[in-house]
Design brief:
The protein is of the alpha+beta class. The protein has two domains: 5-189; 200-380. It has twelve helices and ten strands. α5 packs antiparallel against α6 and α9 packs across α12. The longest helix is centred in the C-terminal third of the chain and has 25 residues, at 297-321. 29% of the residues are buried.
Length: 381
């Protein structure tokens, strides 16, 4: 591995600085190739054919009050606008860049910041002008792995590592900084691609990719449940998402979310990939939206009745399909009193050590069980 500064400067702040460095070559004529690179990048971000000027604001921050519709009344709401990189192109287009490396957008940052800048523009018409901005363009830049939640971000433009490489790769050889950044992007993409091959190794399972990396878990979940099943991008059904517990990654995907009868309370059912002392596993679980209270007999009875019915439904499916043995996949303990209740638990070790044909047969069985479970579960709700 070469001594690349971006192997150490991995934060979003470092990437912010690099983006500003790239954009500012428009204002520096000492290297014509890098200026061309800046122009191409700005055209892509701003969707402007002719770049005449660019003003760069890093970590732009303002506290303002926005007006939001709340039923029939308008509500005044204070928000903090904290934009990673703000580019003012041609004194007319404000380009809001939300920059991420390993994480994703949260709390609708881009939409909030866009509303904030719009409010700043409106206020500036009555006083000091805001650079003469007439339009806003939002950019979500994610150089890490693109998870499903990144595909749901509402921005005018989503820029990935591959998108950046198409532009920046043309200008390699003109700056050590640029070359180092391009090399880092290429290495990261190769590493993420290698995580598609999540099959088991001869090492301890604690060193398996499926145990250590959420990206490997994502690929497994998507191999079992293709993205084509995720038909509604605004819905959690068949959307894959991930998190960590005590530093260990887990990955989940909802297959069902319904309200209880005659109630606004709802529950969900999801698959989870995680690891315990016996190795990586795939677990089907139900989850209650509200905390369970033992003193609320009706609520507890409702939960236990539904859990018992879903558990019995899955047991019948497992026995009828005859691919898994119920004794091997049933929960180790009765979960009817738990808010998050395990329905079945499938150890992944044997599957991950098996050949391609066996893995495909295993995945087909899980998919078929899921389809049948969803159909029958809706009948008992």
């Amino acid at each position: 591995m070469t001594n690349n500064i971006f192997n150490y400067a991995t934060s979003e702040l470092s990437q912010d600085a690099f983006l500003c460095w790239c954009a500012n070559w428009f204002n520096d004529s000492s290297n014509q190739k890098l200026r061309e690179m800046s122009i191409e990048l700005l055209k892509h971000f701003a969707k402007v054919n002719d770049i005449k000027s660019v003003r760069i604001e890093r970590q732009f921050s303002r506290k303002i009050t926005i007006t939001e519709e709340n039923g029939k009344e308008n509500e005044e709401k204070p928000i903090s606008v904290k934009i990673d990189v703000l580019l003012i192109v041609n004194n007319s287009v404000a380009v809001i860049i939300e920059d991420k490396t390993a994480t994703s957008e949260h709390d609708e940052q881009i939409q909030r910041y866009s509303r904030g800048v719009k409010q700043i523009i409106e206020c500036s018409k009555k006083g000091e002008p805001f650079y003469g901005v007439q339009s806003i363009r939002s950019v979500f830049l994610k150089t890490g792995f693109i998870f499903d939640e990144d595909r749901c971000v509402k921005a005018d433009l989503v820029v990935t590592s591959e998108d950046l490489l198409k532009i920046l790769g043309k200008y390699v050889g003109n700056s050590e900084i640029l070359d180092s950044y391009v090399e880092k992007l290429e290495n990261d993409l190769q590493f993420n691609e290698a995580l598609k091959h999540y099959v088991a190794s001869d090492e301890s399972f604690w060193d398996w990719k499926i145990v250590k990396y959420s990206i490997a878990q994502y690929w497994l979940m998507r191999d079992i449940f293709p993205e084509t099943l995720w038909t509604d991008r605004d819905n959690w059904i068949y959307r894959v998402y991930n998190g960590t517990s005590y530093g260990r990654p887990w990955t989940q995907m909802h297959i069902l979310e319904e309200n209880h009868k005659n109630s606004e309370d709802f529950f969900s059912v999801f698959w989870r990939i995680d690891t315990d002392s016996n190795g990586p596993y795939l677990s089907l679980r139900s989850y209650e939206d509200k905390e369970l209270h033992k003193e609320n007999a009706a609520q507890m009875d409702r939960h236990r009745t539904l859990y018992d019915a879903m558990s019995a439904t899955m047991k019948n499916i497992v026995v009828e399909k005859d691919f898994f043995t119920w004794e091997d996949v049933k929960p180790s303990k009765y979960k009817g009193n738990c808010r998050e209740a395990e329905i079945i638990h499938i150890n992944l070790c044997d599957m991950l050590k098996s050949g391609e044909d066996t893995r495909q047969e295993w995945m087909n069985a899980v998919r078929q069980m899921t389809d049948e479970f969803v159909t029958k579960a809706k009948e008992i709700i």
